[in-house]
From TrEMBL:
Protein family: Belongs to the polypeptide deformylase family.
Positions of Fe cation binding: 94, 136, 140
Cofactor: Fe(2+)
Superkingdom in the source lineage: Bacteria
Upper taxonomic lineage: Bacteria, Pseudomonadati, Pseudomonadota, Alphaproteobacteria, Kordiimonadales
Catalytic function, reaction form: N-terminal N-formyl-L-methionyl-[peptide] + H2O = N-terminal L-methionyl-[peptide] + formate
InterPro entries per the UniProt record, alphabetical: Peptide_deformylase (IPR023635), Peptide_deformylase_sf (IPR036821)
NCBIfam families: pept_deformyl, PRK00150.1-3
Catalytic-site annotation from UniProt: 137
Entry protein name: Peptide deformylase
Cofactor notes: Binds 1 Fe(2+) ion.
Role played: Removes the formyl group from the N-terminal Met of newly synthesized proteins. Requires at least a dipeptide for an efficient rate of reaction. N-terminal L-methionine is a prerequisite for activity but the enzyme has broad specificity at other positions.
Amino acid sequence: MSKLQIVNVPDPLLKTLSDPVGQVDDDLRRLMDDMLETMYDAPGIGLAAIQVAVPKRVIVLDTEGDEEDRQPIFLVNPEITWESPEFNVYNEGCLSVPEHYAEVERPAAVKVKYLDYDGKEQHELMEGLMATCVQHEIDHLNGVVFIDYLSRLKRNMIIKKVQKATKDTKVL
């Protein structure tokens, strides 16, 4: 496994619509393993393939947070098939928008259809943080970053701060 480079805003790649995956094979599993290592190292609880410059409909998640209790989930071609009428608000962050957080309202629960690590179709009800996380990552597959839910002024301020921080770290 190897760590991958995470793409930051305002890279136009993050606005790309990711392509469906034809089949789950060894190359795709290797990508998912690398994504998982990258996510844990960052550290984060979710990562979409587009965030590592691969425009495929692939997500890795692990909302457990504790290294000893890791429970990664691999989602290929994830699709939300149902959303609850109730909503939750979470203070979301993103590995592509480092050090910035904002409250985003999303359905409190969703049903998701996807292919797992072995290419088997799964249907799963996700609630709470897991529901928020999967919606956040599916947004990435559709070219949407969580700051797109904010006002233009707030979004532009965050992007400028990320650009400045990125520029400052490259100088060192």
